[in-house]
Amino acid sequence: MRFLLVISTAIFTVFPAFCQQRPDALQVSPDGRSLVHADGRPFFWLGDTGWELFHRLDAPEIRDYLDNRAAKGFTVIQAVVLAEMDGLTEPNRYGQLPFINNDPGKPNERYFALVDSVAKWTAARGVYLGLLPTWGDKVTQQWGAGPVVFDSTKARAYGRWLAGRYKHQQNIIWILGGDRPAQNDKTDWRPVWRGMALGIESVLGKEALITYHPSGGSSSSQWLHREAWLDFNMFQSGHGNGHDVAVWDFVQKDRSLLPVKPTLDAEPNYEDHPVSPWPKWNVDNGYFRDYDVRKQLYRSVFAGACGVTYGHHAVWQFMSERVAAINYPDRGWRHALDRPGAFHAGILAKFMEQLALKERIPDRSYINIPQGSAATRMEAFRSGDGSIAAAYLPVGGEVEIIPGVLPAARYRLSWFDPRKGEWRPGGMLEKERIKVAAPGSGPGNDWVLVLKAGE
């Protein structure tokens, strides 16, 4: 009875400091490049990977976590119903397993009561729930604990059941996949994922917003781009290929495909994650820290992604004294909530929301700067009408601006600090080329250059 009391009471608990307008249904923008609200307002995806949330946290802990993320400006929480870490055989904090006898056709109401509550708690905070019906090892046990419990028929029935349960929750975004390829040289799992998607759509129709979370170093577009149910792509630049993975290449490749669909990095390098820990971690490689994270977030967005997901290595697994550590976390989850990178991710979201661009076009033509190595790679964009342009400079320094390629006669230059969220004026520009210097330079001294048309 304690479980039912906690859940039913918590559903109606409202925290005024975080209570925002309840989320409406999202959809793909008319140009196919971004996500928008029902009234056409731009939506910026700033996700956080709370993968094990349903499995490893109790109700008060979940509310603490959601309060923290809402206060920082996160707009999406990515969480898995059938969790990766023995999610079918290791019960949640209330001693409940998701299914009776591992049968997807026999869901355990007591387990799903917590999922129900989290859907409501996120909505009450103005946050969307990126809901993964299952982690990928329940479809293909290439690696992971499994067991495999889905074929296409069971997947379709499970998708239909979930969609029916949450059909009135407008803040649900459906994420299939769960860190797995949809196909390899030997096996094609697309019929299973297609079945799950069609089960969801059998209840919700095309109002269901559905995507797919792939394995590291790949994009959903590799196997699923032409699937009618896939509304937007996700890629995972990941943690295993060292620093400065070319996130811009993932974005550019996905943006080149037809039909046009939005894309985003749903799992870049996590803050405080060991660098390339597979097959064995070289401790001299160290950890990804906030600057590593910040570079990847900004460069994928500035290259044309519709948003991006931040992650922390202790938070996704909700590392604590209760569970075994996975891949050398250097702190517990509560001590990880306020790491610098999480604040910086929120600053990025606020920056993009301030610009409020309905059309954002990747464009580096107005910046003349040697690209050099991946570590110093610059990315830039402009608005559809050219009235606003912004460039992310990962090492600051001097750049040459070519305002003549933009339509306005004059632009006001500003510098935006991605660490503090502060603006610094930089003067007015006419049509002639001009060299300007960021307020700082060198590794860790990244800046955003912003041009706004005006007098």
UniProtKB/TrEMBL annotation:
Where does the secretion signal sit in this chain?
1-19
Q: Name one Pfam family in it.
A: Collagen_bind_2
Membrane spanning segments where? Answer: none
Name the keywords, alphabetized. Answer: Signal
Taking every annotated instance into account, which residue ranges of this chain make up the domain Apiosidase-like catalytic?
30-357
Q: Does the keyword RNA-binding apply?
A: no
Q: Domain Putative collagen-binding spans what residues?
A: 361-451
By its UniProt entry, which SUPFAM superfamilies does this protein fall under? (Trans)glycosidases
Q: Which PANTHER family match?
A: ENDOGLUCANASE, LMO1036 PROTEIN
UniProt name for this protein:
DUF4038 domain-containing protein
Species lineage:
Bacteria, Pseudomonadati, Bacteroidota, Chitinophagia, Chitinophagales
